[in-house]
Prior knowledge:
Helix content is 31%, strand content 18%.
Amino acid sequence: MEARALINPDGTETTSGHPGPVPWWSYTKTVLAIAALRLVEDGRLNLHEPLPGRPYSLVQLLRHEAGLPDYGGIKRYHEDVAAGRPPWPAERLLAAVDADRLRYPPGEGWAYPNIGYRQVGELVVAASGLPLGEALEQLVFAPAGVSGPRLVLTHEDLASVEMGGAPDYHPGWVYHGLVVGTALDAARLLRALTEGRLARFETMLERRALPEYRSERDRDPAYGLGLMLWAEDPLDHPLGHTGGGPGSSFACYTQGGRVVAVWADEASGLDATTEAFGALS
Length: 281
């Protein structure tokens, strides 16, 4: 099964495959980054100063440069997810990764830890005075003109969501939060961002080149503020975000005024990012 949405430069939209909501997985990071930058622009968060009691800043969290560890390498975590067990309390997860011990001085390295974006979500909640779901609605979804996306917290919240090969998955295992929505709404959101209707798009393009991650598909990778992009001439190449989790993958990218979002069930044998890049070429 697949869901695909395409927005052309003239604004015409086409969709195919599953029409309903799907997990956006790590495209949620783009949503969180937009919310945080909206609060920066309002003067309620500071982008570059160290956070209270921390040696790193919001921009370093957004660009994965804070030195935090990731829980992706914890064998027991993956075992409990696969077994359908309830998500661990956040305190247990943070203790399991020894989250207070930085792996490198902030700004001197790069790693992709979900717990960094968990902190971004906490900052959004504290600065907005709203629960995270309401903050994302007010700061991101409503300004983008999309009404369907939502933050899911419980297994029951996924009742109408196509989860592909993981129908019993609990969203609490995504510790920065999981947004679900249609592929078309994901594409509309990215288009709104690039058109300047959300956070300052140029700020999100402030990137760290990652030549050590070059591949045949990702020939000049970099990471901005909640965006995956090319280090050189990012506006001339695909930019957006890839995501994946048990049972499916998701990708939403734009290039040359065209925006594409793809969700792929693992049973389809498709990779969402490869499909998205192909639609933009």
